Amino acid sequence: MSVIHVETGRHLYGGAVQVLYLAQGLEERGVKSVLMVPRGSEIAEVARDRWLRVEEFPFRGEADPAGLARMAWRFSRRDVEVVHLHSRRGADTLGGVAGAAVRASVVLTRRVDNREVDWVVGAKYALYRRIVAISGAVRDVLIDQGVPEDKISLVHSAVDAAKWLTPRSRAELDREFDLPPGDPAGAMVAQFVPRKGHWVLVQALAILKCRGFTPSVVLFGRGPMRDNVAALAESVGVRAQIRFAGFRDDLHEWLGAFDFSVHPALKEGLGVAALQAGAAGIPVAGGRAGGIPEIIEDGKTGILCAPGDAGALADAIARFARDPEATRAMGLRARKRIEAHFSVDAMVEGNLEVYREVVAGRRRR
Questions:
Q1: Which contacts qualify for 51-59: CB closer than 8 Å, 24 or more apart?
Q2: How far apart are the C-alpha atoms of 190 and 219, rounded to whole Å?
Q3: For the chain, which residues score pLDDT lower than 50?
Q4: What is the pLDDT of residues 63-88, one digit of tens each?
Q5: pLDDT of residue 91
Q6: Can you give the pLDDT at residue 365?
Q7: Nearest to 58 by CA among 37, 83, 86, 34
Q8: 56: which strand partners?
Q9: Are 276 and 164 in contact (CB under 8 A)?
């Protein structure tokens, strides 16, 4: 079997990492995978380092007819049995149209839980043979908008848990991020975009400061709202408690050295950052949004808060800090849950089963 994967995101965020996991896992199972990515994207360099096949092409986004033509030409080649579209930045719409034009067998992975314009849904999702939803929350949104349930497969995103098992020491963490030695410290891993809820964390820290408690939090990631978050933290008096670490490709070395993680997302397809924290053995205080409750067992592997509720997030952080022993126990249970339910092998096998069904259906037709 041969699969061409289209990932049009330029940065190595959570979705792109899933594509790398999938392509590598397929290659290990004898399935030829080719990654079709925009020229100059970060995923191309990392994929080549892993000995994966990469084809870069000029791509300017959702309004790029030349990109559509290039995809249609590539999908029409005889070495392609399945086309798998992985991102929304033009890959879903233009890739779907290109696939339909050459009668390719197209699979789409849907990673977000937001609703689309109702009148678009019927036409758009008719372009795909199957849709892979990364969480039950994403699947439910699709069904609610009229996508046939038998056209949707649930395949959770994954994390390579083994990579996160040997973090640096707490002393090294304090030095690296200039943290007060011995004080409670948390991490948040997310793009600086509105739906990730950075403002909820800032407000929670302000609430805790009024109670006389000043934990530090390191923010990993990048994005357009970074300066807004810094300005808000300054205005409420908690800027000194926050460290901006940017994007780190060595995150797996540091995350497990923190006491806890926060993920106060307002919308979330699943929450790769929560998977990573669990794999690293630390509990997460997360928003009860999208697929996050599919990862976090409230009170057992972390704490769930109502989306946007800064007071509840403050209470969760205080609970982690008050009882370090219980917090460590939550983290250990979180790791076991990730290993049992969100493995890379399970994700690869789930997608491979979708491909087999699509190819078998095409042969019958």
A1: 52/20, 52/23, 52/24, 52/27, 59/8, 59/90
A2: 8
A3: none
A4: 889 999 999 999 999 889 999 999 77
A5: 85
A6: 63
A7: 37
A8: 37
A9: yes
